[in-house]
Amino acid sequence: MIENLNPQQTWDFLQQNPKSVLIDVRTKMEYLFVGHPPQALHIPWKETPDWQVNPHFVAQVRQVVLDPNTPILLLCRSGQRSLDAAVALENVGYSHLINIVDGFEGALDENKQRGHLNGWRFSGLPWQQS
What we know:
Oxidized Rhodanese, domain 1; five-stranded parallel sheet; alpha/beta; 17% strand; two-stranded antiparallel sheet; single chain; 4 helices
């Protein structure tokens, strides 16, 4: 089963579970230039320019998360790619998966802009840019 946590709940979970792994599944450009949580590992679910699913995603996760019972928290822009990535990991036996709803940038507001309603940055949680 995939659990859903908002960014603040995610931050609290990370503080209480130091062996958990936070994976940012956004593109390399999003990760570097939009920003990311300091402890996030970057393993893209999809990458530009073709936006096809990364065929090596599961293998790359397996390289860093050896125990399938380790809590894995997945982050993307708004919560959809991370959910798709969580399903892929669930299908290969990972058992403690958490999708971060609202993602790093959050939902679109009435002006079709992100970062004004919810998300990791909106919540005032630690983040950095490269």
